[in-house]
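request received
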Amino acid sequence: MIDRLPPQPHEWIDRAQRIQFEFEGRQYSGFAGDTVSTALWANGVRVLGRSFKYHRPRGIWSLSHLDTNAMLETRQQTNIRADVCPIVPGLSVKAVNTVGGVEHDLAAVMDWLSPFLPVGFYYKAFHTPGRLFPFYERRMREMAGLGSVNPDRHLEHTPKRYDFCDVLVVGSGPAGLSAAVAAAESGLQVLLVEENPRLGGSLCYQAANDSEAHKLQAGLLERALSLKNLELRCSTLAAGYYADHWIALIDSTRMTKLRARSLVVAAGCYEQPAVFRNNDLPGVMLASAAQRLIHQYGVRPFREVVVLAANSHGYQAALDFVAAGIRVQALADLRTQGEPSSLAAQVKAAGVPIHNATCVSEATPKRGLRSITGAVLSSVAAQGSIQPGQSLRIACDGIAMSVGWTPADGLLRQGQGRLVYNCEVEQYVPEELPDGVFAAGRVNGIYDLAARLDDGFAAGVEAAAYCGAQVSSSRQRPPRIGPARSHFYPIASHAKGKNFLDLDEDIQLKDIEHAVQEGFDNLELLKRYSTFGMGPSQGKHANLNVLRAFCRLTGQSLDALEMTTARPFVNPVPLSHLAGRIFSPHRQTPLHARHKEAGASFMHAGNWLRPEYYAVAGRTRQEAIAEEVVAVRHRLGLIDVGTLGKLEISGPDAAAFIERIYTGRFARLQPGLTRYVLMCDESGVIIDDGVAARLGEDRFYVTTTTSGSDAVAREMRRWAMVWRMKIVLVNATGTYGAMNLAGPQSRRVLESLTSMDLSAGKFPYLGVREGEIAGVPARLLRVGFVGEWGYEIHVPADTAVWVWDHLMEAGRKFGIRPFGVEAQRVLRLEKAHVIIGQDSDGLTHPFEAGMQWAVKMDKPFFVGQRSLAILAKKRPTRALVGFALPSSYAGPIPKECHLVIESGEIAGRVTSVTFSSTLGQVIGLAYVKPEQSRLGTTIEIRVGRGEMIRAAVVRTPFYDPQNLRQSQEVALQEAS
Amino acid sequence: MKLMRCPVNGLRPIQEFAYGGLFRPSPDPDRSTDREWADYVFSRSGEPALKKEWWYHIASGTWFIAERDTRTDEIVETYLFDGA
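response:
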């Protein structure tokens, strides 16, 4: 560790713990607390990564978690930022985006080719001829992008955490800590998060030699630690702001979704680079990066340095360098007047020559660009442009830039906060913030230490007051005062270029100049064309300088410019932190276990799992379904219909309400009877159906479709409210189990389990009765969905298994079969009973579905009636008809959604189709043109690979058109 | 994630709610022309503005009215429907 300094007073490393790790196949050692970047730098390694486009060597540049040119990968993870990644024993990493290693990256040839790759080159060059595009695309995809994903990596699930607090404070510098203490002293639950592993913010590197500042901080920290309701969380990034103070906190293992009542952002500032030729090479870095190296990690950033300053921080840095034993060759100050404070004299006293009105116009590189050998200093005119001709070359291996700052305002801007450019401090400052969001400290344009403490305290009190806490004292916000810490134009043009504005995307000054010349004079368009600010650091060290250059090129001023949109996340977040299991719960009926035992194959129906059919050993799916159909038609079947929506509607207005909701007539429906119900929306489109059973004068029991219960109950509640009707609606879908016992033997089997009179006279078709079955209270509905004598049996959910078992046992000697959804679909299709959502779509109205019989237009009102009145006057456009293929037919069978074709045009589509073993032919329902709906019409259906088959429009129901199966005589005869 | 205030259950996360469309009193079906009725059924204004909307608190089955500014997505007020 040739570049390790002697121990520093506030360093973050533990020199007692030496750690070995591997970088690019070579072993290095560092100390616990080092990041990969700092440990490598301590070992004299200068090339940590290669740039995205030109593969130029890059080293430590900002060391603020945004050195996105130094990205690493392991076998498990990729695109790890080297300045974030701590070293741990056994760590083995390599740089991303190189061909043959970071030191001798063969792709560095791109740097020589760069004059031929102007901005927008790819858009202009690689679209013709079109046939070559796949080739271009493959090549470009190989070159583009950063790390590679190892498909064999070990998959890890990252947990999520949910958290709450009253006040969240982001940042633990003087302002943040002060805000947290102020808010916590009012008794609120306060959480402070700090991205770095240690508290202190800028004090950790900018005020390391300032004992007064450290005494202040120690006092503040003592107060903070004494407050039980203040939690301090380090190594935690507040990465995203979402509506109503919902903050994404990211730590090394997980994302925490935090709901805060109020938010104080004291996230500080990002230091901004100067722009000059070769300002990207290893050795050139932000002054704050060099200070972090020295004070936090005890690493020497360089041996001989030229400081480029435009503020007092640069002078402080120069003094820090001198104290660390670094030769400061010169201090170039961009400002004409130089530094006004006493720091100038101190720097001079340390033997550092100061050049006012001077910039660095170029860093002279060593061959291979892996380090620098000197800096070229040029004079600057008052308005920031370079005076040509007068330059001075100074030997150095480092250049420290201290020319300005930009607020870490990501969270503020994500929350739709508005920041405006303030010329007093040459920085964007918050102008309007969302309710309950406060900013303090340098992000707020406040730089003086005492003022930052005051600003933070005031923000903490404001946040506490926003939460409704009693606050004893409010404090005045300090004013934003100069001298500005940021220079208005720290950009030097250079004839040979390579003066980078954006290191993420390798964007040079001339790229922006060319883009503006080409007409990209809108910032959002310029961003997308040149890709500035679109790299991994999202332009945190680039946007401001691009804006400054853009304004100068277009003659605008920064305070009139709308900034580009800020989006989550503030810093890169591993996708594994965001990934989660897909959460899609499904419902099971009370009889689920019985179905499983009986070999059911399950299917999804709405959010339910239902038996599709019951598998039988030695039978195919089709055969098993066919057997279930036969059982129902000739003997007995039992199906679980517990998935039907079940609504209990009662109250004095119940009948009138149902009359208004459904299309049919119910006011005079006798208690003890049921009626088919059809529901339309206001445009007359069919949305649901079911059965309404009148249990009493003001009590109804209504079923809905399997997937419709929630939506139907929801709409009913709204209508009840709008119509101000006195009803009580209970969605009892999960309260009851239900099964349909159907087939000629159903009455005989049920009679053995109940004392109720099941004779047709006492319990007619479409009747409803309440009684007991197998000792359990039950509602019986005599319905005919499958077209046989049968009973829909509704019982309390926890008794459903008991009743099912009794029915199966009693039915055994009659050959009872449980049947699934597929058999039911066949059975109902033979009766031409439509399924809403299968035989209807989002535009189907009752007249075209052949359901006029269920719609009573002469009622005073029902939902959809007015629209149906309009539709009734119009020419119909389609009709749902039954079709059949001849029983001798042997070709391909049409499927649902196959098209009905007439004279080469689409005339309709098949909605349901099946082979009916009962009838010995293929039957189905299809939409056709109204003129094709006449019985006997031949329609053509296009199937499979385009073959046309001919079918005849036939009368429906296909099976038992007279409904004789529901008459007592036929039933008794069948059952005997 | 947003919060919404149900007039009955107080401040709850937005996933507990379902949007029920713009609040639009129906014209009298017996007195409106076909054109007026079709306009009521099919026409909606997508113009960003302060909107009066139906919202439903799913867990408790509560319908209510929310006044929401669709320019800022700010929920200005929520209250139970009072028939007016």
